[in-house]
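Closing statement on the zinc ion sub-project.
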Amino acid sequence: MLWSSACELCGNSTRNSVSLCAACEKDLPFLLDVCKHCGIELQDSDGKTVCGQCVQKLPYVDYTISLLHYETPVDYMISELKYHQALSYASILGSLLLRKINNQKVTASYPDVLLPVPLHLKRLKKRGFNQSLEVARVLSKGLNIPINTSLVKRVINTQAQMDLNAQQRRKNMQGCFEIETKANKNSQLVEHIVIVDDVVTTASTVNELAKLLKDHGVKMVGVWSISRAILR
Ligand SMILES: [Zn+2]
Ligand SMILES: [Zn+2]
């Protein structure tokens, strides 16, 4: 069956499976050579696969697959998703991320569970949905991996990471997540978990989450994210 839809960015009609035309897709700022641990783009990579910071101190996150730079139009798409409920962007960007995950197998096996970065209840109520969960839904469906939203709770409503320096960001995140012991009392934690995030701004949020999971016996923690921002 032939069908077409309007590109969400330029309005031209497209027969792509997602509502984004081939030209707009081609123009997206895809990430190329990145650090395998934290997903940051490597400068003059020369075959290196790990960035200077991760060489110095190995993060709790074992691997990161991130799709796009946090630049135009990605910043626009993600803020429309978060603040104007443009859920179609979760499906477009999630589908593109799914394709990258399928093409770039970095681990021998897929994770047992997907864990969308939890929002604090206050923020969730205000926004009405968790954008990371919306992205995780696309990945879960495409890869047949369950999502767990009751495993971890965000107990502190943290300040926006963008406004803080590196040290403040680490401090800001300390203790902000907790394992929901009540909901998971009788279940052994799985071996391999992937954290799903919309934008990894600094690695401190996902790293704090990964540390918590590893403290509770999880062996491998990866991150799949739409975008990787660089704070200057
Ligand atoms: Zn377009
Ligand atoms: Zn790194």
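The radius of gyration is 18 Å. With this model delivered, the sub-project is considered complete and its resources will be redirected to Aim 3.
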